[in-house]
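Researcher: Next entry in the queue.
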Amino acid sequence: MKNKSRFLRGQPIEPPAIDANISIVDLIDKTFNAYNAARFREACQLFVERMLADDVTVGMSLSGAMTPAGIGMAAIIPLMRAGFVDWIVSTGANLYHDTHFGIGLQMRRGLRDLDDRLLREEGVVRICDIFFQYDVLLKTDEFFREMVSAPEFQRTMSTAEFHYLAGKYVLERSRLLGLKNKSLLGAAHELGIPIYTSSPGDSSIGMNVAAKALDGNKLQFDVNADVNETAAIVYGAKKSGQKSAILIIGGGSPKNFVLQTEPQIQEVLGLDEKGHDYYLQFTDARVDTGGLSGATPAEAVTWGKVDPERLPDAVVCYVDSTIGLPLLTAYAIAKRKPRHVKALYHRRGELLGSMKKAVAEKSRT
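Model: Structure for this entry, 365 residues:
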């Protein structure tokens, strides 16, 4: 009999029968054998076996309405507490809706096919099949307007600093209400995990900050600091002999913001770098429309965003993130011991100073 083709060295597809005792790890490792299920298995294995090595700094981008669905408290906070996410770029909307839970407001399961005119008449707001009272928005707006009126907000700051301070206020409200682990803003404050927003004016948080500016409030967001701080986090990891990984939930502006750190380092600042080492994305966006949300890691190589030598360590999984992220979290927590929390928020100045020094030395050569 001829030697088997080298293409037939994969494991035989012989999954065990699923029973009541199967673990999340065995379910994914043994029964997710083909199609998008296989890509999801590859995603889980990449995350746990490589991205969560002790010498890897993991950045997460977050888009889509994830926190209203409870994904913040169910999946993202556990990842943060386990040391599996070191820095975050999120839409402002996710952080705004996250705050509802931290200040004791409720979101409820609903239906997609009701008459929205009837919902409007009854003061019910809908995000797909999530329902909540209109006054949830009003109370959250009031919380942010009162918060940014405090003296410590009367200056220009990066969005990471704003979210760190906001997390303190959310935590205090949660404490008064007897709530725990409801808000990722609160968890980020406790853990020192920096959270950035790539478009700070594009959310209800930004709208309330803008409204207060009409009254003379001095809060301004320093988007230049955001660009440089995120680049410094990646540069600091790579130049200390470690690796950089990106976990992309959805796409949009947060996806670009976590990935543009490498072009900022290489193209703009002129520092020697190759790109992120690991790239994992959950998306439902198509490639053929040319949009950024569906852009592949191979395309990102041409921009310097991903190290071409590490392209095999890149997985795009076409799955609804509200399905993929909870399963990934359960798999990772079951299979990987917690890592040391890097508390990068408190190292922003050090990392930025190191990158500025490298740029200065480069300009003298």
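Model: The radius of gyration is 22 Å.
Researcher: Noted, moving on.
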